[in-house]
Amino acid sequence: MSLQTEIEAITGSISDITAETVLYANEGNKFVQRVVSKNSALAERLTLETELTDDTGLPLDDVINLVSVTRLDSNGGRYRSCNRISYEASNDALDSNSIYFATVTDPKYYLEENRLKIVPTGLSATIKGVVKHITPVTITALSIASISRLPQEYFRGVVLYAALQVLHKRMNEIDKPTANKNLTTLTAGLVSTPADRIDQNKWFDIVGDYIENEDVELASAYLSKINTYLSNYQTELQADIGQYQWYESQYFKVSRQFVEFLNMFSSVNMQPTGAPNEAAGND
What we know:
Distance between the termini: 19 Å
Helix content: 40-55%
Number of helices: 8
Number of strands: 8
Structural class: alpha+beta
């Protein structure tokens, strides 16, 4: 099944918010891989390998974790594991007169301006550095059924994360019934003014005018109109409350599923938070 189909099985249709859901899926892909990569036994399954053939280093803008860094000790030689050092220590690692000087048999790496750099310098097409890192791909469509460099058993985590964000958005979208106004803020109105006749906050003033003019029939008609409006308002409000409760109930159910999913693959135990009142049916 596609990513969209799996999300909609939890949240209902997302056809009106596909662009937002793509963003949620990308966030979920990064989140799931970041959590899974904390488990060293699983991290290597997520890796991308990049060769460094010069000393400019590897940009880390989209990298969420580093798995290994190695450097060839000579042309046709063997790859040596690089140990990380601080940026401050990189000056000593580059100083041939320092006891901390990095050698081809004991190379190092450090981070500078969000780039990974290997010492000793002198990387080339024949003397390479190799970085295994976790850099999630960018999801561009919801029609996909798999994600590059993400084992299929982790795909469910992206679905659950995106579904959580969709449910949260749906809850935030539920507001007071459409076109309602603050009925406690009454303003003056004239029945002869078309705009006033459709302004709910002016209806009470119009009724007052009819009463003052002793036109009981028109006053009663307007009061009936107000009562009908209030009845419809309450009906719509109750429907919105019911819908919100369903989204809220789904949100916490999916939260628990997501935490259970992460605990299967993570070395860090996670716990769900909160528990709403269960909404009736429709799930």
